[in-house]
Amino acid sequence: MQWTKKDMELYIGSKEYIDTAIIPIIPFQLSQETNIGKSTSKREVLSIFATEIEKELSGRILLIPNYYYLEYGDKDEEAQRLNKWTQEIQKQPFEHVFILTFDAGWKKHEKSLDANLLWVPGFQIDEQNSSNIMPLIRGQVADVIELLRSYW
After folding, report:
1. Domain of residue 112, residue span
2. Model-level pTM greater than 0.70?
């Protein structure tokens, strides 16, 4: 289920079956113009990736709205903010909360998070590989789904 009015109405009526929440976290930056293309590509791919996970596990997970953080900011501060999101989400209650990212830098902060970190090596979309991106995403989605099922 996604963060839409229709899906949230369904969630309220069937939340005893939905025990897992996923928070996609996405870096944001405008200060380093040479990296803007890379940053926006990661956002696009992660959004597609998260949506594909939600489609595969529909009825079991809730896809939380994207969490944006400053790419070159203080991850300790962001971890505290993410923990506030996690605490709010766990009030429902969700048995499992996962943070989904392509940013390997979060691995250093994994122990300070109140949720499980799902770090997936990211890749970029460019004009040459845009037609081949969905098979790559689906392959990684299948691996992440197996990992999620291991927590259940």
Report:
1. 5-146
2. yes
Give the CA distances from residue 88 to residues 93, 129, 130, 134, in Å, rounded to whole numbers and listed in that order: 9, 39, 37, 33
Assigned domain for 61 exists: yes
Does 152 map to a domain?
no
Q: In the chain, where does DSSP find H-type helix?
A: 5-14, 36-56, 75-90, 133-151
What pLDDT was estimated at residue 129?
56
Is the CA virtual torsion 37, 52, 102, 127 positive or negative?
negative
Query: Mean pLDDT for the chain?
Result: 86
CATH of the domain at 89: 3.40.50
Paired residues of 101 in beta bridges: 119
| pLDDT tens profile 16-64 | 889 999 999 998 877 666 666 666 677 788 888 899 999 999 889 999 9
**Domain-located, residue 127:** yes
Question: Rounded distance, CA 131 to CA 119, Å?
Answer: 24
